Amino acid sequence: MTRTFACFLLSISSIVLSQEARLVCPEISFLSMEDGANKIAGGEYDEFFAKLHLREAAAMTGVAPGEKTLQESRVFTRDFFRSAVLDFTEVERAALQVHLDRVIDQFGDIYPLLVHRPWRFLKSRKDLCGGFSFTRDDCIVLSEPTLSNFVKTMRTESMETKNGESLLLHEQMHVLQRARPELFKPLYEDVFHFMSGTVTVHPWIDERQVTNPDGMSDNWVAVTPGENGHTKWHWIGSVLLSDKTMHTMGRDFVGVAVPLQSVDAGYQMVVGSDGKPKFKLLNELSEFTSRLPIRVGWDHPNEVAAYLFTVITHARRDTKLNGRAADVMERAKEWFEKNLKPNSELDEDQRRITTDH
Fold first, then answer.
1. How confident is the model at residue 218 (pLDDT cuts 50, 70, 90)?
2. Alpha-carbon distance 325 to 289, whole Å?
3. Every domain of the chain and the residues it spans
């Protein structure tokens, strides 16, 4: 008997015992290659693929655009996503179940609205989006290397184990954000100091912007104090600044902050004398980043919430917090505890999700 198969049998036994002891078990499903391919490709029209530009499409697929037109590149990228979906192995299913059991046991009573939602997974090749995890609709996309790590750590209690479970919570948060955007609006506005508004993205930024499947909306404005009591507004996001043909997922992403000015239709980017939007690196907008108790994920409120949630749940502190960041941490913690559990103010659909599975 191989060690992997022995671990698989032990995992199956522990899963059965754990689920028998638990009164509430969320639905957990693993999409087949065919179902996953349909899910990841979206419907007849899909906003994600419709927004892609040549640079980011090449980074996501690892294939240079060549002579493709923009539309041809979008079609190719969608087909690439579809072809990159794989079937789960039994060991991978068992490993994810073991990790999910830990997540459910630790956090199911505290954050049932998140943890007791259905968990749906699809598996991708390692060459899709550089192996990064992301979500599509109500599914979490996990690559071959990520699943390999889950298998390696399913019988251990290590930092890698905690990191894997943080990843599951992070991605499930994106699923909930997509399903219930109105739930998170007070958190983004009152705690993180974003403001909802219509932003006209300048073409120079648009063709360089990295489309985040977990944060599709550009209509969030970072609000910071200015001089003499005036308010400053910035569009923030990740872009591919280099003019080279091929970019690497993650490594070549550059967070930028672009100043905005108010116009009748909302906000537009401030343009310099060269006709390009003015911008600074996001980490240079210290009046914004210093108040957030995270080191990454500044470029969209969905990411701020997901990263901050895993810091809170796993008691990780990257740096000593200043007064503003400590206040955001405490207020966010209170918000998550209050709003990620069912109460009389939640609608019937929310109560059903947290009790039926």
1. confident
2. 9
3. 27-180, 183-330
